[in-house]
Fold each of these.
Amino acid sequence: MLLTPISASATPIKIASVSASSSFPPERGVTYAARQVADGKQGSSWVEGDAGSGLGSWVEVDLGAEKHLDRMKIWAGLWYSTDYWARANRPKDLELKFSDGSVEMVTLDDEMVAQTVHFAKPVRTSTVRVRVKSIYKGSTRHDTAISEMQFFDKESGAEV
């Protein structure tokens, strides 16, 4: 797994739907639903709603059809503001499970930057389940957040 910047020419795959093991309940008109990891807005986030710090929680994207993935981009944490990002838990180690049954482990940096993860080898899949295996602790919130995720098709012709 290699974290690198991604070129502006790469086009993300349109995500058909998103589900999650849980979601934090709406609070003061703000929602934390799973679909928010694919809404194109870094200021909205999925926040898990499990008891504890979110270890084992997952969010799963359905790509609508089988794709040939070789990388993803992730905005880990609650990106509403730098203050909110520091307050909430951020994922550190993630398990990516693909519809073909293969699994890849990735480790994210604890930085408020979009991180691109190149997979060890391309995978044909129609879904990706992203499970939180470990976290970076937030200063005041005990729940773990992911603001946005994008996936890229190796066969789309986009260059990285």
Amino acid sequence: MLLVGMLDSPYVRRVAISLQCLGLPFEHQSVSVFRTFDAFRRINPVVKSPTLVCDDGTVLMDSTLIVEYAQALARPRSLVPQEPAALARTLRAVGLALAACEKAIQLYYEDLLRPPEKRHAPWIERVTGQMHAAFAALEEAAANGSLVATAEQLDQDAISAAVAWTFTHETVAGAVSASQYPALAAFTARAEALPPFRAAPHGTGTYRAAS
């Protein structure tokens, strides 16, 4: 399989880490939807990151749908629990992490693409509040031990939460700090030290399978 997209995207990174945890081999092509738009379009005309090119040539997009496909390939191995109550808790944390990513990206694009005189302060305040609400809930999960990141246990809620925190902390200057969310920051540091995270570090590099 071929994963296409930049590891500075939380969605691409989430997929790269999930594929590793599921034991699925893949190659990674670091292609930007901005700087190399035409190259990306040749792989996926929609130019949506992440894109996964399956072994049979089928092109998938959207990190959640790609992870769902990966889980089907890896069965019975799974990154989510099967018991309904535990599954609901996991999916809640994943939803919070993805919401935080979405709002952080909106703030990033607002700063990157919109001229200062055209920025709408009430909109920025609203998006910022939504992002902090998601991180506050993830902070509670990290503080009560609901999020676990060890070599023996690394599930989808942990992957998504850690990726969301790292992306926001590294990309949206000053948006969040460890002093605001100490449990989440400490949890993320533990996750980032694990091999699947180190093999796909946040940034402009390329995934390298551990030797």
